[in-house]
Design a protein that fits this description.
CATH class of the largest domain in chain B: Alpha Beta
CATH topology of chain A: Rossmann fold
Helix content of chain A: 25-40%
Oligomer: heterodimer
Radius of gyration of chain A: 21 Å
Shape of chain B: globular
Structural class of chain B: alpha/beta
Distance between the termini of chain A: 75 Å
Radius of gyration of chain B: 27 Å
Order of helices and strands of chain A: HEHEHEHHEEEHEHEHEEEEHEHHH
Largest sheet of chain B: 7 strands, mixed
CATH architecture of chain A: 3-Layer(aba) Sandwich
CATH topology of the largest domain in chain B: Pyruvate-ferredoxin Oxidoreductase, domain 3
Number of helices of chain B: 21
Helix content of chain B: 25-40%
Distance between the termini of chain B: 16 Å
Amino acid sequence: MATTPVTSTPIDAPKPAAKTNRIGLQVLDYRGGKTTLCAGCGHNAISERIIDAFYEMGVQPERVMKLSGIGCSSKSPAYFMSRSHSFNSVHGRMPSVATGALLANRTMKALGVSGDGDTASIGIGQFIHLMRRNIPIIYIIEDNGVYGLTKGQFSATADIGSKLKTGVVNDLPPIDTCALAIQLGATFVGRSFSGDKKQLLAMLKAAIAHNGTVVLDVISPCVTFNDHEGSTKSYKYMQEHEEAISEVGFVPHFQEIDVEYDPGTTINVEMHDGSHLRLRKLHEDFDPTDRVAAVSALMTAHSQEEVLTGIFYVDTKKPSFTEMLNLVDEPLGTLPDERVRPSRAVLDDVMHRLM
Amino acid sequence: MATENVALAAGAEGGTLVTPDTQQQTSQVNVVNDFSIQIATVNGSGSQSANSVLLKSIFRMGVPVSGKNLFPSNIAGLPTWYTIRASKDGYVARKKEIDILIAMNPETAKEDMHSLPSGAAAIYEESADLRQFRDDVACYPVPFDKLTAAVCPEAKLRKLVKNMIYVGVAAQILKMDMTAVEAALRKQFARKVKAADLNWAAVQAGYDYASTTFTKNDPFVLEAMNSTEGKIIIDGNAAAALGCIFAGCTVAMWYPITPSSSLVENFIDLAKRYRIEEDGKATFAVVQAEDELAAIGAVLGAGWAGARAMTATSGPGISLMAEFTGLGYYAELPGVIFDVQRTGPSTGMPTRNQQCDLLSVAFLSHGDTKHVMLIPGSVKECYEMAMAAFDLAEQLQTPVFVMSDLDLGMNNWMSEPFTYPDKPLNRGKVLSAEDLTRLGGFARYKDVDGDGIGYRTLPGTDHPLAAYFTRGTGHNEKAQYSERPDDYYNNMERLSKKFETARSLVPRPEVVQTGKSKIGLIAFGTSDFATLECRDQLNKEYGLDTDYLRLRAYPFSREVHEFVASHERVYVIEQNRDAQMLSLLKLDLQAEEIVKLRSIRHFNGLPIDARSVTDDLVTQEGI
């Protein structure tokens, strides 16, 4: 598929004014601080798509919390949606912070931004348990195969045979975070490319509509340390090797469904909020409800040196972790005293039984 | 300090045989309500119910009593000891000397027997023939298996029921009130009438055997008192859990580790009972984490989002929580961490007592960090300080540690009943949407009130100016990214000021001072019990008066400085090797005060006892 690499899109570039979304906010209301990442960094393009997706979905920014670990990717929440609370936490441990924050306030939409080092190396343990619990969060891996802030060491998603600028060749196989996610219980799993505006935006909007763990592995080239000949995470490599499993279409719940689809070629998935995900098959055996087929497609793509993108797996039925806990409807964190401190009679009863 | 003269100190003493006392012991004066019982069993043999019945029977007789489980890191098979101390004077520290041995473990029986002082008593399995080792100990051999078989036809239950036989034997020898024993037993098995009947039959069998077989040959007897009227018995972990319930704790994330696990397990039980609303929905969330890193991460995430969140752990877990705790300090996140302390590594003696995480917790993590620690010295304080910890964490916007230990957390203690909190929850400085409209915005890390504590907002606050970006130190007052030297410096100074504020908010020490003594004692936590008894020993045996300050928190408040200043010599009594509390004091005191400090340390894994403290102090005093 054809895409043009995003070379330099300043995050705070002015947009046509006065246009508002369904809750009356302008795209400006979803912007953040000026990026300090390198010009042309894939992460900046992802930040742009996040802004577009939340704007277009009409999500109140105050209802979103942004969580991140450590690394270039994890700095990026400062560059979008300043009206959302944000927490730049500890290397690889954003999942636990997000889990706690969601337990405190299950009514919030959680957006986690991580990188390949933050997720697949230091954070793999927490990443796994986040998915196993199906924590309701959109977990984005901004995946460039290298550590940027420490100047270009390989990460655990780097492909075997990929070459550093210095000539060092990676001799270990990559962790496929999507295959892992499908196996471990994430309920919405996909891969995209920071340079693929249309696909990434549709996937992000569908992610917002989902209730449960969304894992989006977004290949996001590092222009400084991993965008050269011999790298398998470069813009050029992605242009030559990206292979979409399906074409992602999305009809939000607040829009009338006026587009017919052919059930023979397109799979329709009704999302938690009433939105519709339309996946037009590009691979013959594509079935986003079949875990085994999804993992198999990913493995096959690896052997053919293709980077498979699209939504691989969706389960809209499995309850999210905060639903499983059977919590009260209101946020636990701000329940009034009388709902969290039992009465004097309760203490008397406990004391009596201890006498 | 001296090595323990008991078998569980790994046989360090070997056979310290006391010269046999040839006098007839029947002529001795009775020792009433002042002795210790040690029950030596095999881990996993089900003696817990029997020991509990024995303890609670004494409690029901109105006699002050305490119990300690000294157990190995093992599920079944290794030796374990349970000690019960009856003390008319109300002493609840471990008594160094064992007065009555109930030897149920053939593996350790000989060593257990050798550890007894002359004039002690021993109840044991007849076939073990322990009399051969000591002729200065009153011996009560019992055919346990034969007696058990007679009352318990079902063979597979005999292992458990056998333990109740010794309850009956001990009850007869100690002249216990059998109505108290039956009441304690029936309460123990309140939900299982058949089990209660069976066990009661075993107690009676033991009692009858003893009364028809033995002539009392030891001085120890129990007589009814009225010193336990209206008191409760509870362990520190259950008490702390209760505190969490009444503190309105809503989120708990934890990773099991001895000796802290029962704190969260108690919280779960209590929350299920008292924190489910009419529609069946819970006002709490408890999650068993994948490790301690996740547990503390979730606590801080929950605290950030407005919840009263806690975790409970012990030393190794504290180590794993180090990085997050630093972020919690710098990003100013509330959270409560219960550290139920034990001896060092998991492959060390993880089921033995120590107060050994003080230094590591006080400065846990990277960079310039210092943390608030509350130090309960009783089960009642476990309850009260649990509540105080949540208030302080939110007031100070920082992680707060409650430093309990195995002895306090896992053992049963008598206590006055707990009192209902008289103040509402203190949720600290949190701005609402209305506040933001009124103020026209806020600066997260600005010291508006001069106490070093900024105002915060919670995610979900419905106002366009509510959000801020949370990160470590690299921020200015408005929570914007900054690496400017002045921003970093000012922020760190403000954090220091906040810690000074903490000094005036934490629980004050308890001071007993006559103004006449030159010697001051400082102790804390479970070292308190032995220290109180030690003071009486010094007074009675050496005519030495001492003043006493019991620390209840770090940072130290003004009273601590004053106490040291007003004494010539101050002994810091603690259960660790490196004088950790003394080290913390040194950092806080002036040079002329530091030289007054002396150290008394107890660190063999057993709870500290008064005699060891007294002996050490007397030696250092050159008396």
